[in-house]
Amino acid sequence: MKPTTSLLITPLLLLTLASAQQQQQQKRPCTQAEIALATGIHLNIQAQHAEYNGTQKIIDIETQNPGDFYNFARLKGQLQANIQSGINLRQFNLQIAPEGNPAIPGLKKYQEAQATEKGQVDGLCGVYVEDRETLERLMEEVKGGILLNEGNLKNATSVCDFTLVFPPANEMGV
């Protein structure tokens, strides 16, 4: 890059950053509905971490204790409950989302993913050679759902000044 080009780019970059900062400062405060939606999406992300951990526990029981169908059934039931909890949270989030909120399309996309995950878990049999492909796909889909909901969280408050800071999520710690 030529020195003159760099001298031109630097002021333009600073002007762009200043403009973005000014736009952020001009946002209106979030409404209670927007804050409630952001909180609900955050809770859903936490539920997704529970789904991820639950899936990992099923992988562990199937690989480390093959034939332990009692604990498999118990863990499968917990995972099904976690998924249902996530479905309930997403439905609630859609109900409370202010009309036209930028998070709504992502929440609807997440609805489709949840239906797929529910069907996958319902089909698990407790034998790793049979379940392996589904479990691996489920782990990837849950990670993708977390990313989608992180985007939904940003979108939910993209039109307002949201200064509340959530504690960090579980980060998939078993």
Overall 3D form: elongated
Helix count, per DSSP? 5
| Highest CATH level, the class | Mainly Alpha
Biggest sheet features: 2 strands, parallel
CATH A-level architecture: Up-down Bundle
Helix content: over 70%
| Distance between the amino and carboxyl termini | 48 Å
Low-confidence region ranges: 4-19
- What is the number of independent domains? 1
Mean pLDDT: 86
Radius of gyration: 21 Å
Q: Can you identify the CATH superfamily? A: Alpha-catenin/vinculin-like
Strand order of the largest sheet: 1-2
Signal peptide: 1-20
Keywords: Signal
Structural overview:
The protein has helices at 3-25, 32-64, 69-96, 104-122, 128-156; strands at 28-29, 160-161. Helices cover 76% and strands 2% of the residues. The protein has 174 residues and is mainly α. The chain has a single domain (30-161), classed as Four Helix Bundle (Hemerythrin (Met), subunit A), CATH 1.20.120. It has a two-stranded parallel sheet. It starts with a helix and ends in a 13-residue tail after the last strand. Keywords: Signal.
Give a quick precis of the structure:
Helix content is 76%, strand content 2%. The protein contains 5 helices and 2 strands, in the order αβααααβ. A two-stranded parallel sheet has the order 1-2.
Keywords:
174 residues; mainly alpha; Four Helix Bundle (Hemerythrin (Met), subunit A); elongated; signal
Describe the secondary-structure layout.
Layout: H1 3-25, E1 28-29, H2 32-64, H3 69-96, H4 104-122, H5 128-156, E2 160-161
Parallel strand pairs: 1-2
